[in-house]
Amino acid sequence: MHLYVVSIHIQKAAESRWVAWMTETHIPEVLDTGLFHGCRMFRSELQHREGYTTYRMHYTLKSRQAFDTYEKVFAPALRNSAPPEFTGRFTAERDLLEMVEE
To answer: For 2-98, which CATH class?
Structure first.
């Protein structure tokens, strides 16, 4: 099993609108690719950057090949689909994890 983890540091002033966009639009669009089993969204209780809140989305992948397809076919457009109001108000980090033991 593979887990695609996206960490977002979003300015607190834009946080509530960004969360609504993520849950109502972006995450459903990612899942609509058919390459993931699901997604869980977490908010960090630790402050990583002053004035920002950190969120982590854990997307469970159907396979490693599914990730490769996502990166090639879908990710470029989806990463650029955030509304203009969020431009410059967040940073993103991405990681792909392979489960070693359950």
So the answer is: alpha beta
